[in-house]
Amino acid sequence: IYHAILRGFYARLEAQGFWERPDAPFPDRVLGEAEDEVFGRFTWRSLGVYPLLWEIVSDAMRGNLRRFLAWDITELRAGGLRPLLLETRLEAELPVRLPAALAGMPFQGRADRIDAGSGRFRVVDYKSRWRKGKLERLVLQGEQFQPPLDLELASLLPALSGSVGEGVRFYSVEDAQGEHGRPVAEDYTAEAHGRNRKLVLESLSALVEIAAEGRFTIRPDEGRGGHCGFCSFGELCRKSHGPSLARSRAA
Q1: d(CA 24, CA 73)
Q2: pLDDT tens across 124-149, in order?
Q3: How far is the C-alpha of 31 from the C-alpha of 6, rounded, in Å?
């Protein structure tokens, strides 16, 4: 729902020439239109929740969006950027070693938003919340390939020809209220990618090779949104077995 509203909001701003008016006030009417359109599709009936619960949740979401967008627009204007591309498909071949059977296979992704201006661009990904910590650390640990791949793929888009990538930014919509002490934005910078690019591509090559052989690294995770919650064998496997956990973490 957040994604759909943000896409509709920024598409309307672009169509109305909002970015050509640096002194324009916050577009409350435009946000209301985008919210009403999306919430009209997602009702308590379609979602299967109690009406009062959905009223409380949707009101909270509207508040989160208003705070986040007020911050986001201010940050965009200060940086001389504007949302150029929304929900953009990314696809290209990358300089990654692939098994013979996968030679020429393109890598794919989808950018929630790409901001551009003054010969620069950055890739933006929306999250409801972000609790996992620094992106560069997660990339080096092999837990997050999205930031480096998005940056590689976006740099090949014709619409960004001649622009220099600044990096990838994860936005946490629900942290814009500032009550939890967590940052609204988490960056994987172009400088970090320059340091890590060789290692990231080598790691990705190795993972693709072993996956093509039918071997997959087990990463037990019982936390919220963890892998175990999506696994049909979660209650049967030895994910809580100490030696098995130690081996998987060392893999």
Answers
A1: 11
A2: 999 999 988 899 999 998 889 999 99
A3: 9
pLDDT tens-digit readout, 201-220? 888 888 888 888 888 776 66
Tokens of 100: 């013979």
Cβ-Cβ contacts under 8 Å for 198 (sequence gap 6 or more): none
| Separation of alpha carbons 140 and 156, rounded Å | 23
Query: What number of helices (H) and strands (E) belong to the chain?
Result: 8, 5
Helix (H, G, I), strand (E, B) or coil at 171: strand
**Of 158, 18, 167, nearest in space to 91 by CA:** 158
CA-atom Rg of the chain in angstroms: 21
CA distances to 81, 165, 170 from 78, rounded to whole Å, are 8, 18, 18
Report which DSSP code applies to 7.
H
Alpha helices in 40-145 (DSSP H): 44-47, 51-79, 135-140
Which residue type, as a one-letter code, is found at position 185? Answer: A
pLDDT < 50 positions in the chain: none
DSSP reduced 3-state for 202: helix
CA torsion 248→203→169→81, rounded to 10°?
-170
CA distance 139 to 145: 6
| Nearest Cα to Cα of residue 133 among 120, 148, 144 | 144
